[in-house]
Design brief:
Layout (H helix, E strand, L loop, with lengths): L2 H5 L8 H30 L2 H10 L14 H4 L1 H9 L3 H23 L14 E2 L24 E9 L12 E3 L2 E3 L7 E2 L1 E3 L4 H7 L9 E14 L3 E2 L2 E2 L3 E12 L11 H18 L6 H16 L12 H31 L5 H16 L1 H4 L10 H6 L3 H25 L3 H19 L5 E2 L3 H8 L8 H21 L5 E2 L1 H5 L21
Parallel strand pairs: 1-2
Antiparallel strand pairs: 2-7, 3-4, 5-6, 6-10, 7-10, 8-9, 11-12
Helix pairs in contact: 6-8, 8-9, 8-11, 9-10, 9-17, 10-17, 11-17, 16-17
Protein name: LCCL domain-containing protein
Pfam families: LCCL
Organism: Bimuria novae-zelandiae CBS 107.79
Length: about 525
């Protein structure tokens, strides 16, 4: 302190020090009163909207959610071992390429069983989809069925994929006096009507099992009448007591060396390799190779798209569809990664929980044709909800569960002080949906991939429930695109009806008026 300043203080024994302390306390008290008055005026001037926004903005500071792993040393063991023995990022990238190539080689070897196969006469077996028939719908047979000839004295070997017993018609089909819907189209017993599903009929006849699929021989019999109804091998056939110009039988064909359907082997292979990638990797970018593997699994194994009618092999069609759909799906995957997946997986050390919850949910959603097959909702349209028994109840339960999940996610976003921006985002989504609903001439169609894209932003949290929800939605996105492509969200009435009936009013036939002339 300067000497001049020291001289301003009173000497020992004076009361000046007490006066200075009292003046300092008084000034400090006045400053606090001024600050309190300013804050009070600010609170007084703040609008109710601002106060409401402050409440929903979340706590200060934000409470960022992170997963505290159970048994952390055990969950990090494999990743730590990899970082010790392959320390550099360049070396780890090379190892990733090697593992990915190994998966690809094994995947191709297993798929090679779908090459063309021939019977003892050198005739190539025809690959059928689960819905292939001899008598095609939509007037595909022409007048008097001339385009579906011959009707008899013809046989050919065929091959069917697995899991055809659960494939159903989604629009009413007239079979005599009844409308058949939401069940396998198998009409008859041992001798089947010409428009029956060939693969479903083969399962009903016991030619092969639904689990593995298989091969057989179709023999065309021509006209037949009185098709009976019997429940066998999990399929209840449909009766028809009149005649039909085309009937057929299905029998085993022992001369065909028919390999079993590869989907179960491929499922084990893909779960094994994606599990390795998930549990050994600490980087969230491991999402991309896992995404490609799951996409390939749906495209070629679990739920492949329809191939050309009656091929000798479905591989060219499946390869073509896979190449067509993967590239745009990867562009979407980049956006999903940067906005959602990266925030959830970054810094996550619970690798075992990530593998079980996130990757498990991924496969659960990608296999939705099996995991959600028990839900009585095939298409989310008003017409289908009216037709399907139990669809409205199932939809109500789904909406209730979804509302509970959304409430939980909203709470976590509020804790992280990110709720406002996500409310604004979903406000834009809702506006877009409302605009689509009022466009004349078309109907809004909410597909698998649309549901996933709408809900995925709400899972960018590092919580255990978010791992499950995010994996499930990623699987639904992959299943929707790999199986059905980027189908339009705005479709005309004809597109939605497909081969269904018009539901038009039957015409009234008036009694003819006959007049006699003299």
């Amino acid at each position: 302190m300067a000497r001049g300043a020291e001289n301003t203080y009173p000497a020992d024994g004076d009361d000046g020090g007490t006066d200075v302390d009292e003046e300092a306390q008084l000034l400090q008290r006045e400053e606090l009163e001024v600050v309190d008055n300013i804050a009070a005026r600010a609170d007084f001037k703040r609008s109710p909207v601002s106060s409401f926004l402050d409440r929903i903005r979340g706590p200060r500071p934000p409470r960022i959610q992170t997963i505290q792993p159970s048994f952390p040393s055990a969950q990090k063991l494999l990743a730590t071992w990899l970082n010790q023995h392959v320390p550099g990022r360049h070396q780890q990238a090379i190892l990733l390429v090697v593992v990915f190539k190994l998966w690809l080689i094994m995947f191709i070897i297993i798929l090679s069983g779908q090459r063309p196969i021939k019977d003892e006469n050198g005739v190539t077996a025809i690959n059928l989809d689960c819905v292939d028939t001899l008598w095609r719908s939509k007037n595909g047979c022409g007048i008097d069925g001339i385009d579906c000839r011959p009707f008899n004295n013809v046989s050919f070997p065929f091959r069917c994929p697995a899991k055809c017993a659960s494939v159903k018609v989604l629009n009413p089909r007239a079979v005599g006096h009844q409308d058949v819907n939401y069940r396998p189209l198998v009409i008859g017993d041992e001798t089947y009507r010409g428009d029956s599903f060939i693969c479903g009929s083969a399962i009903h006849a016991g030619v092969f099992s639904d689990v593995s699929g298989g091969c057989g021989r179709v023999t065309l019999l021509g006209s037949h009448d009185n098709f009976s109804s019997v429940e066998k091998h999990g399929i209840e056939s449909i009766p028809f007591d009149s005649y039909f110009p085309l009937a057929f039988t299905v029998t085993p064909n022992p001369s065909l060396h028919c390999p079993s359907d590869p989907r179960q082997v491929l499922l084990f292979l893909d779960i094994f390799f994606t599990g390795l990638l998930s549990i050994f990797s600490t980087s969230p970018s491991i999402f991309f190779p896992i995404f490609i593997i799951v996409f390939a699994h749906v495209s070629f194994a679990s739920d492949p798209p329809s191939a050309s009618y009656r091929n000798t092999t479905v591989l060219p069609d499946h390869i073509s569809m896979f190449a067509k759909r993967l590239l745009p799906a990867l562009f979407c995957a980049v956006v999903i990664y940067r906005t959602t997946v990266k925030r959830t997986l970054r810094g996550l050390t619970a690798h075992a929980e990530k593998t079980a919850l996130w990757l498990g949910g991924f496969f659960f959603g990608a296999l939705s044709n099996y995991t959600f097959d028990w839900i009585p909702i095939q298409r989310l349209t008003a017409h289908d909800l009216e037709q399907q028994p139990g669809a409205k109840v199932a939809l109500a339960i789904i909406l209730f569960v979804l509302a509970a999940i959304i409430a939980g996610q909203v709470y976590y976003y509020w804790l992280e002080a990110r709720l406002l921006r996500y409310l604004a985002l979903y406000g834009l989504f809702t506006t877009g949906i409302l605009v689509c609903l009022v466009i004349p001439g078309v109907s809004l169609r909410i597909h698998h991939y649309v549901i996933a894209l709408l809900l995925l932003p709400g899972t960018s949290l590092q919580t255990r429930p978010s791992l499950v929800y995010q994996g499930l939605l990623l699987g639904l996105f992959v299943n929707g695109i790999a199986r059905w492509d980027f189908d339009s969200v705005l479709q005309t009435t004809a597109d939605l009806r497909e081969d269904g009936k018009f539901d038009s009013v039957l015409p009234e036939l008036l009694e003819p008026s006959i007049s006699r002339t003299a």
